[in-house]
Amino acid sequence: MTPISYDAQKCPKDRPIPGEKAMKGMRGLCVTVRASLKEPPAQPLTAIGVYGFITDGISSESVLANNPDLNTDAGQFTIIPSIAAGQKEVTFEFIAALPMEKDVAQYDNGIGPLNFNSLRVVSFPGGQQFGAISPCEMDEFSMECEDWENENGAYKKAAFMVKSNERTKGR
Question: Where are the alpha helices (DSSP H) in 14-142?
């Protein structure tokens, strides 16, 4: 996959930020990327994982919270909901973690130069994909959960991985 264009803006306040704990003290920006696929899919795909390395074009530091030191391809950093058969371009969004002192106002695209390396999409048919985890799922009695509920409404428990997976049939 090859990026064509990208721009960044401040994330909406109600948007869950993946890697929020790892990004403590950093600025999170929502980056929208338009990219071309080297090989358009022969069949429609859903819940496609996006993998790779993204670094700041000036400092060469990772802007992905799940791979701050660039030692490993730490996993997918976003999901594309669907790609149609034969589709040649995709758009996806990810959260960039930048130092607070970086002046992004000087850049027309809202973030400055980024380098994309080993960017690829991977589809796991029938597989589970990651999703945002609220503080209430981690500890429903925590202060963070209380704050989350004040912003998002009452927390409702759900049975995710096991009962939502067709392959396990609720086992």
Answer: 135-138
